[in-house]
User: What shape does this take?
Amino acid sequence: MDKLILDRAAIERAVARMAHEILEKNKGTEGLALVGIQTRGVVLAERLKAAVQSIAGVSAPLGILDINLYRDDLTRVSEQPVIHKTEIPFDIDDKVVVLADDVLYTGRTIRAALDALTDFGRPRRIELAVLVDRGHRELPIRPDFVGKNIPTSREEIVQVRLVETDGKDEVVVSQG
Amino acid sequence: MKILIKGGRVVDPRNNLDEVRDVLIENGRVRKVAGKISLSAEKEMDARGKVVCPGLIDLHVHLRQPGYEYKETIETGLRAAVKGGFTGVCPMPNTNPVADSRSDMEFMIGEARRLSLINLWPVGAVTLRQEGKELTEFGELKKGGAAALSDDGRPVTDSNILRRALLYAKKFGLVIMVHCEDEGLCGDGCMNEGLVSTKLGLPGIPVEAESAEVARDIQLADMTGGRLHFCHLSSKKSLDLVRQAKAQGSKVTAETCPHYFHLTEEAILGYDTRAKMNPPLRTKNDLEAVRAALKDGTLDAIATDHAPHSENEKDVEFDQAPFGIIGLETSLALSLKLVEEGVLSLPDLVRKMSVRPAEIIQTDRGHLSEGAVADVTVFDPNLEWVVKKEKLESKSKNSPFLGWKMKGKATEVLAAGRVVLESGEIVR
Amino acid sequence: MEAAGGVRTEWRWTRKDLVSLEELSREEIELVLDTAESFKEVSAREVKKVPALRGKTVANLFFEPSTRTRTSFELAAKRLSADIVNFSSSGSSTVKGESLKDTVRNMEAMQVDTLVVRHSSSGAAEYLARFVKAGVINAGDGIHEHPTQGLLDIFTIRERKKNLEGLKVCLVGDILHSRVARSNIWGLTKLGAKVSVCGPPTLIPSKIEELGVTVGYDLDEAIRGQDVLNILRIQLERQRGAFFPSIREYAAEYGISKERLERAKKDVLIMHPGPVNRGVELAGEVADGPHSVILDQVTNGIAVRMAVLFLTTMVER
Assistant: This one.
């Protein structure tokens, strides 16, 4: 049975709150940049960017990162990853990069994203924003901004759906 | 020694015979062919359900000895021939050294005698070392046992040399077997020129490389009145020329090979070197023309152009592989498919594989008349078998027919009354 | 699912080898092109490297001299973090006494994952792919195909013209001896382009029109209305094979000069697989002119080869 964890309004509130926290932690938008991980992390990054702009009136640059080429299980995946584009249209040196993804689970995607980002330059700091943290980390990685913590078992599946990619906003947990 | 072959369908076109008969062989000769022969023979063979015919003759083989014994030897080649139902073969002279002298003829014949299997009628070279320049000693070659002359593997490029050869050979009654290929048109081609060669990016050999030379050779044969035989014709254009020439009274004869009536250039797709031979496999249109020419008599004979090559030589890039495929052990079954498909009658098949070949090399074989040398082939036209590498007698296995389901196989072969194949196994 | 990126479920890339464009479907060609688009960005970075093929070994086996294709594959492999070794040998393997099969078996015994093969015999790559477990990528086999060149040409056209459907592309020059032409014909026709060939009648292969292309001998006529002119390199030694009487006459009849180009569409693309015989098949000013995308082809070649290496090496063996 699917269990609704966040509905549209809750997602909206979570994004707004995270935007506030980002601005608060970084004391404004100076040197701030957002990088979303393909594909739903990109949507989250876009929404955070919009929220930051509406709060602080400043537009932070936005980048897109495809981490497939950095996955540590690439040679073992049975499904075929489709390589999407990576686009970081700004210099990330000395920036505070807020990395955005939909779900934080084992931490391996973030590990890959950190490697990828490092190839683009040397940010002053990298922070992590996720809509959902479901636990079960396999690497020493923790988020800086979390929309919602959801305790799960490994068997459960957390599905984040966003209007831009899935036609509606919701987060559901289903049994695997 | 008396041998009685009982109850077989005796197909002896020279004697217009196609009936169930008993055949009595005594002291190496055909003694009697009759409805029922009641007499005790030392050996009786039950040929019920089988075909008994004059021994099959292959006008065109390469036995590779001397010089290329790793491909084939006279022994392995003759064994393959026996397995294929042949009582005689004509090995081409492109050995190393080239068989262009009397002693070369004597060597081959001596080797065959020693093996005591079947007849070997050697073909001597037309020109020394097959270089196309100086004639060999036709008289000496004939004394050594040459049954024909050929520079096969290569054409006689110089028209005047071929003219002289045809003329000079008249004195000895020798036939000149020509491999028709315009070497300039052929270039570095390694398959038929056409859509498939374009797709595969392989240099092509145009049909005209064969037919242009066929046209020339018809002119030379008519001009000289010499005896000329066309080897391995593969294309409609060539066959149309031969048909026309024959209709106008030309005395030329011609052979084709089973691969030209069963395979097309498509067999090369995937760069299969087992389908690489010269002349190359042609199109469906040519294949149909070869069948039609067999049917209407434009083609006199079916030969194999048995051309053994080692596995190493063929297991290479396509353009590096040598031309040629083996054929002795599949020829009869592949030709029988034409009978099954209604292209040829059984007597026609015997004509193409025994009667006409004997006439072309002017040997008194190819018939089961009383007193004839008892070269006899017995085959079971319904025996089903599959071509398998490990079952082949030939030293080389370069056949595009590996894996093919066949119907019809020689079970007994008698050479001058000696049983060399019995129940499908080589005796001795 | 945490993994970013979509997963193709309808069909999968299953080829460990790329020997020709003849065997690829339209979807497969498009997947390579799409993947190459993503890879193009990697070469534009400060750090031109991703770890995708870390720990994989690619061997460049070049039995025919070629600097650019070999270098392009080498950079492609390196930008994917694969280890790459170069094995060059001029002359055919038989001359050296070792068969191609043995040479390649040896490379395979060294645990190479992917073999990039350039060979003067048509079908060499397909022949090798039949028996090696490693992946085989055809980097040009005789006059058969040069699939990665075909793909990079198509990639470059697509980049400029967006849609291949109905686009008019003319291949100019020695079609008979061109593996680039064959790969272009297969790839372009599968993507819906209208392909024509133009060259001396002696250099047009038999029955080429049955591959779905139109044939012309007069270049001035043939270039009208074309969106793309892909000019093939003329091998100067063809003159000796009596394919044409002189380089001078070839240049006059089939060279793309500035004047001749004026007959073409204003936005025509000029392509050439390189190296260019300046002043023969292509005037220098055209090669360097505004219509030329020759250097884009070189740049795109790396992205396309990265995509091919990535897709084929990722296939489970």
Chain B has two domains: 2-52+376-382+405-426, 55-360.
